[in-house]
């Protein structure tokens, strides 16, 4: 290992093994890093983020600077903002799983900031970004995580950069954490409770070598699902600098969102890292202890690829478990986030050989961890190797992305024959999936669209994907989109087509936001944001992915509908149930808590082909609910192409039905506190492909 000789005169102490990472002390800075199989560790200090040569080097003495498997050192005189990396030597024995490279510059896995000052066009040693020593102090002004109960939440999935990079955002700091603050008035008007951000942990946006075949532009990693630093907020979203300023700016964003009553949930990617497969770069875990951090092939020479991204983290190894818990603790305790969505969460359930465990230690530990007890934990309950655990994800209190809800609701509104039973099950909380494991309806994260797939606009505007600009000859992305273009592929000036698309979009929104469970809305769906038919825009950091805020005016009726629908849901506990419906009479009015009818107000034949369904919800307080009594509701769904007279169930005694929602009407939803008295209390004409919601004598 080559060492520079221009070391400044500083007082050096052995330091302490814990905590891992780098932090400021009263006299300097402490550095600590784990490596069980390393034979030599060297700390490199740099004066500037772009320096290619260190200004100081410190060879750690295994007798003085090592405790167990942890190498550590304390250096006097260092301050916040110090740049550093490591060089680590050890065996290069692929057959034993070891891939140490003494020439590689190693990023500290516990680094709280990474100074990514220039594009990583390729992985070259001199381009390795520097870690930054950060001071954790921040004036939180009394802030702490909001931790709303899931049943009260409406989650809004968005990309930090994409929210404000478009010129229409008119942002003072486009694409930044600071610019998110500018959008707080909009979020409050919309009414969401929680923002789930796509990955904000440091990643390499320039890791791809493909070009857009249409315009020749270099494709980038836009989504960020390729982590470089699990503790470090991405400096690409910082408007104030990358030398630790990104940490302060992220905290400021969280604090201001919390002041506005909005939670922050982070999409986090523990299933793999940006080091990739055997041909990938060595910059962190591979150069620290490859055999511990990754699930290796049986011959130990390669990587099991359950993530589809080249490697798989060995999440249930005790060392990796500690890393994960330390990371989650940091984001909750120091960054004040309210929850996490775990990308490809089923990988958290695999052992060191890749087999699924019945009771995975890390999944149980996260669920039972005392620091995380009030923190939201949401699993994407599958992985790229075919494991599918929706409804059976282990660990007790985990919530799950419910793609069964997405697909069944899409099929219903696509009018695939015989979908009423599936719609009823998804709308009432997916008890078939969650009751058996003792979980509640709110553990189902219901969604129609997400970052991965069509936007809502594209779901009603395209029959097939259009991913040619991804440079993969349209082979990437899902081919089974369950979408319908309403007569023409893509944008249309035909008023009839646009009217039909609007109605279908509103049908999806109504189904999502009135269903039992926790709704998640894809950001921009409320004003028909489009990705031009691209259902896999992971590499499109451009106007394909960015929020075009001009669409807010163009599709103001959809925005208004969504906004009023959110108000309606938040006002009525009947749509935010704590427990599953029982199907039994639980009140003094003689009504079931939920009843199902066909259009003639008769018992439902669940095997029928026609997709028409009516639902009567008794809003009286259930035994397991702590909410006050609510109104009663009669919902009518007609996914067929025919207008249909629905016979109405009698409202509760001494009450009358009033119309709140009809997606086929120009006034599709009445504002909060208003509703329309029905002149005919016995029947209602439900137009083709529409949703109607009636309220019993509302007292809003």
Report on this model:
Helix content is 18%, strand content 19%. Strands 13-14-17-18-19-20-21-22 form an eight-stranded parallel beta barrel. A six-stranded antiparallel sheet has the order 23-24-25-30-27-28, covered by helices on one side. It has a domain at 12-132: Immunoglobulins (Immunoglobulin-like), CATH 2.60.40. The longest helix is centred in the C-terminal third of the chain and has 20 residues, at 495-514. The protein contains 13 helices and 30 strands. It has 700 residues and is α/β, with parallel strands linked by helices. Residues 1-6 have low confidence and may be disordered. A hairpin with a 4-residue loop joins strand 9 and strand 10. It is elongated.
**Name of the top-level CATH class of the domain at 12-132:** Mainly Beta
CATH architecture of the domain at 12-132: Sandwich
Ends distance: 73 Å
Q: What is the share of helical residues?
A: 10-25%
Question: Stretches where pLDDT falls below 50 for ≥5 residues?
Answer: 1-6
- CATH H-level superfamily of the domain at 12-132: Immunoglobulins
Structural classification: alpha/beta
Count, helices: 13
- Cross-sheet strand order for the largest sheet: 13-14-17-18-19-20-21-22
CATH topology category name of the domain at 12-132: Immunoglobulin-like
* Global Rg: 27 Å
Overall residue-averaged pLDDT value:
94
Strand content: 15-25%
- The count of β-strands is 30
Largest sheet: 8 strands, parallel, barrel
Q: What topology does this entry show?
A:
Blueprint: E1 12-13, E2 21-24, E3 28-34, E4 40-46, E5 56-59, E6 66-67, E7 70-76, E8 83-89, E9 92-93, E10 98-99, E11 114-115, E12 130-132, E13 155-158, H1 177-182, H2 184-190, E14 194-197, E15 201-203, E16 227-233, H3 245-259, E17 263-268, H4 285-293, H5 318-333, E18 339-342, H6 361-368, E19 376-379, E20 399-402, H7 403-413, H8 420-427, H9 431-434, E21 444-447, H10 456-459, H11 495-514, E22 518-522, H12 551-554, H13 556-571, E23 594-597, E24 612-617, E25 633-638, E26 644-647, E27 657-662, E28 676-677, E29 683-686, E30 690-696
Parallel strand pairs: 13-14, 13-22, 14-17, 17-18, 18-19, 19-20, 20-21, 21-22
Antiparallel strand pairs: 1-7, 2-3, 3-7, 4-5, 4-8, 6-7, 8-12, 9-10, 11-12, 15-16, 23-24, 24-25, 25-30, 26-29, 27-28, 27-30
Helix pairs in contact: 7-8, 11-13
């Amino acid at each position: 290992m080559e060492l520079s000789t221009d070391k400044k005169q500083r007082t050096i102490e052995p330091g302490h093994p814990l905590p891992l990472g780098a932090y400021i002390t009263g006299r300097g800075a402490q550095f600590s890093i784990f490596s069980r199989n390393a034979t030599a560790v060297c700390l490199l200090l740099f004066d500037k983020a772009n320096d290619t040569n260190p200004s100081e080097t410190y060879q750690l003495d295994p007798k003085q600077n090592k405790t167990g498997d942890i190498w550590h050192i304390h250096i006097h005189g260092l301050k916040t903002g110090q740049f550093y990396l490591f060089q680590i030597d050890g065996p290069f024995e692929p057959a034993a799983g070891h891939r140490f490279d003494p020439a590689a510059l190693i990023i500290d896995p516990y680094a709280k900031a990474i100074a990514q000052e220039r594009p990583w066009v390729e992985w070259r040693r001199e381009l390795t970004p520097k870690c930054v020593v950060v001071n954790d102090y921040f004036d939180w002004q009394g802030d702490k995580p909001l931790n709303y109960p899931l049943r009260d939440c409406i989650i809004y999935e968005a990309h930090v950069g994409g929210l404000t990079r478009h010129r229409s955002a008119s942002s003072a700091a486009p694409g930044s954490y600071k610019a998110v603050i500018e959008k707080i008035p909009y979020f409050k008007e919309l009414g969401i409770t929680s923002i789930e951000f796509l990955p904000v942990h440091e990643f390499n946006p320039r890791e791809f070598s493909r070009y857009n075949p249409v315009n020749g532009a270099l494709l980038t990693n836009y989504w960020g699902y390729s982590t470089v630093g699990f503790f470090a907020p991405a400096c690409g979203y910082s408007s104030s600098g990358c030398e630790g300023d990104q940490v302060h700016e992220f905290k400021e964003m969280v604090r201001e969102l919390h002041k506005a009553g909005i939670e922050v949930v982070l999409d986090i990617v523990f299933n793999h890292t940006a080091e990739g497969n055997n041909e990938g770069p060595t910059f962190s875990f591979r150069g620290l202890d490859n055999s511990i951090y990754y699930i290796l092939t049986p011959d130990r020479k390669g990587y099991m690829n359950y993530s589809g991204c080249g490697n798989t983290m060995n999440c249930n190894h005790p060392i990796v478990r500690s890393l994960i818990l330390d990371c989650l603790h940091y984001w909750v305790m120091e960054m004040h986030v309210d929850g996490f969505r775990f990308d490809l969460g089923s990988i958290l359930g695999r052992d060191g050989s890749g087999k699924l465990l019945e009771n995975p230690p890390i999944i149980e530990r996260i669920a039972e961890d005392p620091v995380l007890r009030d923190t939201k934990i949401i699993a994407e309950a599958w992985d790229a190797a075919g494991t599918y655990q929706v409804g059976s994800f282990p660990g007790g209190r985990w919530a799950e992305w419910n793609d069964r809800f997405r697909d069944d609701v899409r099929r219903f509104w696509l009018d695939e024959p015989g979908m009423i039973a599936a719609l009823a099950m998804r709308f009432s909380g997916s008890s078939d999936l969650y009751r058996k494991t003792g979980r509640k309806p709110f553990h189902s994260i219901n969604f129609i669209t997400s970052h991965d797939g069509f936007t809502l606009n594209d779901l009603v505007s395209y029959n097939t994907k259009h991913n040619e600009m991804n440079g993969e000859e349209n082979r990437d992305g899902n081919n089974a989109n369950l979408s319908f273009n309403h007569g023409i592929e893509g944008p249309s000036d035909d008023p009839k087509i646009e009217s039909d698309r609007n109605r279908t979009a509103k049908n999806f929104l109504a189904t999502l936001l009135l269903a039992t469970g926790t709704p998640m809305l894809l950001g921009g769906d409320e004003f028909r944001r489009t990705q031009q038919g691209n259902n896999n825009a992971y590499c499109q950091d451009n106007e394909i992915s960015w929020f075009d805020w001009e669409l807010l005016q163009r599709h103001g009726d959809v925005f208004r509908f969504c906004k009023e629908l959110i108000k309606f849901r938040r006002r009525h506990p009947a749509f935010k149930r704590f427990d599953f419906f029982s199907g039994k009479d639980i009140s003094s009015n003689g009504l079931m808590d939920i009843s199902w009818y066909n259009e003639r107000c008769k018992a439902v034949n669940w095997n029928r082909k026609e997709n028409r369904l009516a639902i009567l919800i008794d809003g009286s307080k259930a035994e397991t609910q702590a909410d006050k009594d609510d109104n009663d509701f009669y919902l009518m769904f007609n996914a067929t192409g025919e207008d249909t007279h629905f016979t109405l169930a009698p409202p509760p005694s001494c009450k009358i039905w009033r119309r709140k929602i009809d997606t086929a009407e120009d006034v599709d939803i009445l504002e909060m506190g208003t509703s329309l008295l029905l002149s005919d209390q016995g029947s209602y004409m439900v137009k083709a492909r529409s949703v109607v919601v009636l309220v019993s004598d509302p007292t809003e």
